[in-house]
Structures are given as structure tokens and as C-alpha cells.
């Protein structure tokens, strides 16, 4: 009995407006293909990357700052050259993309959880709860996201110690970036809840005696997911850029476990000595990843806005 239901759901998905407009938009298809390519590289990094940049025994300091293999002085083992420690740039980009995507996706998941819970409580309960939560969000929004992330990162490193922070850098960055950017979700959810809670189906649920958590999460929340999907797409790109900026400032990933941002930071010190490839190739990879995610977010925003999207 479950197989026909699954097939019918798949058939409805194939016939949905999302699939229809996606197949008509070549830019969206190209961006999605590039994003999937990044995800596949990240998942299969141990098998695709010719070297493991996280293994100190796998690279030699004598191979430091070698140019790409097609330039004079290059080594055929290192297609995009090496960094200041002799690590293969191509392999480091693959592993760095894995780190950046992991931090971006999990940080957005944390933002999503915090924003949905706080936004639902503020919008549905109203009154003093709404004022307290929204004033707290307004205070955090009065500071730039990067400033909040830098402050929280500095507090974590001072309280937990540099060694502990480096060991759990990915987990720490997920918390830092997630805590820094939840107010956007909360404000969006709150605005949607204020409109939804006045509708008849919410009143009917109250008359039936359903509990408040069930009304909020089972009935109101599903009707507020469209703007959340758009915000999440853009926020993944913002989280990746935040991680890159923190790593560039020395508050992100440690040197022995480089991300795209930390690799750009390392190469910045050598760019004027002629080793431009250490910064250039990771920079291009980071810009391309953020660009395709932002373009997908713009497409989703237009798709869910019938006044703008024309197919």
C-alpha cells in the first residue's frame, strides 16, 4: 500500500510548479548542477583528492610554493600548485569546500531551529513574550553579523583555550555563525505567524482544544515555510562567507585544517612574492560557490512571488 502512495507523491512533485519552472530556467539548472558538483566533491573528497592536506605526513615542506603544473617550475603532481607548507592546492580546495559546505549547512540548520522557535513563540503568544524576544533580536541586529561572530569567537577561544577551539573548530563555527544570524528567521516567521493565527483554521484548532505547541508546529508552521526556504538558500551563502571571513581573520579554521577562507588568508601573505595561485584558485572556488547559491536563492524568491516571476 505504501508504494502507490510514494509513486503518487513523486508524480505530484514532477508535475509541480517548482519542477516546471526549474526545467524552463537554464540559469537555475546550471547553478544547481554546479552546486551538486560541489556537494559531490565534498562528499567524495577522500577518494577524489590526489592528496590529503590534513595528513602532515602526506606533504613535504620542500614542495612549498610550487607553481601550477602548466607553468615553468611546476610539478606534474600538483595541478594547481602548492601552498607555503607544500600542500596540494587542488586537494586543499576539495577538502576546504567540504569544510565550508558543512559549516554553512549546519549553521543554517541551527539558525533555522532558533529562528523558527523564537519566531513562533513571539508571533503566536504576543504581548510581553513578543516584546521581549523581538527587542532582543533588534539589539542583536543593531550589530553587524560579522561583529557578533568575532565577539562570540573571541569569547570562545579565551574561555575554552586555543587548543580546544582548534580541535572542535567546525562545531564552534557552526554555533558562532548560527547564533549570529538567527534574528532574520525569527522576524520572518513572526510576521507570517501574525497573519496566519487570525485565519479560520487556527480558530477551529483552538475550538477543538488542541494544545498551543501542536497548533504552532503542526498547523501554522507548514504555511510559513515558503519564505523560510528562500532565506535558507541565501543564508547558506552568507554562512560560508562568514566562515571564510573568520578564517581570514584567524578566528576560524586552524592552519592544519584549512578551509577556503583560511587558505585565502595563507596565500594573501605570499601573493606579492609571486605565489598568486595560493589565493587565486581558492578565491575563485569560493566566489563560484557563493554565486551559484545566491542565484538559486534569487530564483526561488522570484518563484514564490507570483507578481515577479513570469516563468
From TrEMBL:
Protein name (database record): ABC transporter permease
Coiled-coil ranges (or none): none
A Pfam family hit: OppC_N
Membrane topology value: Multi-pass membrane protein
Similarity comment text for this entry: Belongs to the binding-protein-dependent transport system permease family.
ABC transmembrane type-1 domain sequence ranges: 97-297
UniProt keyword Transport present: yes
Organism name: Pseudaeromonas paramecii
Main location class: membrane
Keywords linked to the UniProt accession: Cell membrane, Membrane, Transmembrane, Transmembrane helix, Transport
Cellular localisation: Cell membrane
Membrane spanning residue stretches: 27-49, 103-127, 139-159, 165-182, 224-250, 270-297
Amino acid at each position: 500500500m505504501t508504494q502507490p502512495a510514494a509513486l503518487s507523491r513523486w508524480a505530484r512533485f514532477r508535475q509541480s510548479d517548482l519542477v516546471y519552472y526549474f526545467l524552463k530556467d537554464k540559469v537555475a539548472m546550471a547553478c544547481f548542477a554546479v552546486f551538486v558538483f560541489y556537494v559531490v566533491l565534498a562528499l567524495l573528497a577522500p577518494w577524489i583528492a590526489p592528496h590529503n592536506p590534513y595528513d602532515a605526513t602526506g606533504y613535504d615542506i620542500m614542495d612549498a610554493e610550487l607553481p601550477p603544473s602548466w607553468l615553468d617550475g611546476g610539478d606534474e603532481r600538483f595541478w594547481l600548485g602548492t601552498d607555503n607548507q607544500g600542500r596540494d592546492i587542488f586537494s586543499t580546495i576539495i577538502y576546504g569546500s567540504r569544510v565550508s559546505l558543512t559549516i554553512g549547512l549546519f549553521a543554517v540548520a541551527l539558525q533555522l531551529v532558533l529562528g523558527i522557535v523564537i519566531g513562533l513563540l513571539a508571533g503566536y503568544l504576543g504581548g510581553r513574550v513578543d516584546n521581549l524576544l523581538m527587542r532582543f533580536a533588534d539589539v542583536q541586529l543593531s550589530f553587524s553579523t560579522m561583529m557578533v561572530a568575532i565577539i562570540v569567537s573571541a569569547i570562545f577561544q579565551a574561555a575554552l583555550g586555543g587548543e580546544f577551539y582548534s580541535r572542535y573548530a567546525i562545531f564552534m563555527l557552526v554555533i558562532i555563525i548560527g547564533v549570529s544570524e538567527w534574528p532574520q528567521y525569527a522576524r520572518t516567521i513572526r510576521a507570517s505567524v501574525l497573519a496566519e493565527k487570525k485565519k479560520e483554521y487556527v480558530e477551529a484548532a483552538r475550538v477543538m482544544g488542541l494544545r498551543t505547541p501542536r497548533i504552532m508546529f503542526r498547523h501554522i508552521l507548514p504555511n510559513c515555510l515558503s519564505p523560510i526556504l528562500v532565506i535558507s538558500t541565501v543564508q547558506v551563502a552568507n554562512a560560508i562567507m562568514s566562515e571564510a571571513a573568520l578564517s581570514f581573520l584567524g578566528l576560524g579554521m586552524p592552519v592544519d585544517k584549512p578551509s577556503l577562507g583560511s587558505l585565502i588568508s595563507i596565500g594573501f601573505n605570499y601573493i606579492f612574492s609571486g605565489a598568486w595561485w595560493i589565493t587565486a584558485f581558492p578565491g575563485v572556488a569560493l566566489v563560484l560557490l557563493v554565486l551559484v547559491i545566491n542565484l538559486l536563492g534569487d530564483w526561488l524568491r522570484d518563484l514564490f512571488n507570483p507578481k515577479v516571476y513570469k516563468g
